[in-house]
Amino acid sequence: MLKGKNALVTGSTRGLGEATAKVLASEGCNVMLNGFGDADEIETLRAGMEAEFGVSVRYHDADLADAAQIDALVDETVAAFGSVDILVNNAVIRYFHRIDNFDRDDWNHALAVNLTAPFILTQRVLPGMRAKEWGRIVNISSVLGLSGQTGRADYVTTKTALIGLTRATAAETSDSLNITCNAINPGSVLTPNSEKFVNQLAEEKGISFDAAAEEYLLRRRQPGGFVLPERAGKLIAFLCQDSSFDITGTSIPIDHGRSGTWLQDRTAPD
Ligand code: NAD
Hints:
Rossmann fold, binds nicotinamide-adenine-dinucleotide
């Protein structure tokens, strides 16, 4: 359990971040939500979490592309809860261009949100974690942090670099203080983002959502099904436990074996 810990989860207004925020709240964490979306829906989420889990839940609308707003997000979390004990770097922006046509502003924006923001947030929360001799940082990478993919240079690059930031942070915290930094590498997770692509495929092919989901996952060599956001949230919460103190500097796939079996010949006999 994580009772009384204070967590900041970026990009937690939907998808994997929202699920992670809820798992952490269910374990007794106070949570600072962040991300974009409809103000009424975010307030319903925030108030609902407080009512369901009996913890304090706040929301800050910082745009992580802006360093001053990142500072304000950290300052407000510390003002509200007293500390940031758990940082989950989850927010993401995705562009879909081949390198030849990649707009430089889009590239810089992706780097700012997906990589520089986690760096600044890590830099800002580490002193407080050192002072309390307790801290957990989890960076949300991807299976595309382990492999290239056409048309995804921003994503592949930033998700790979997050694994490097994870190792560098672990190196600088691997003394006797109880601070860890790990990454997770999800395969395809059922979030509004992937649902949008499955719906597009269903429409293009005139097939059901389930049939399109099966094809979407087969194309990605993940035939075992989508990773559910709650399961990724539970892995993140596991990494935040006291008992996970020995685990640091790792990146852990959660992908139905996708990254561990990519050389498998699926037509070969057993
Ligand atoms: P999503 O697109 O559904 O949500 C992204 C969140 O980030 C939203 O809350 C959004 O408001 C927020 N955000 C975007 N730009 C922001 C900015 N400038 N400032 C603050 N917040 C911002 O994403 P998701 O599918 O839930 O993915 C969450 C994480 O999991 C990401 O890091 C993603 O790379 C990773 N991941 C997802 C999948 C998947 O299949 N969905 C697979 C592997 C890894």
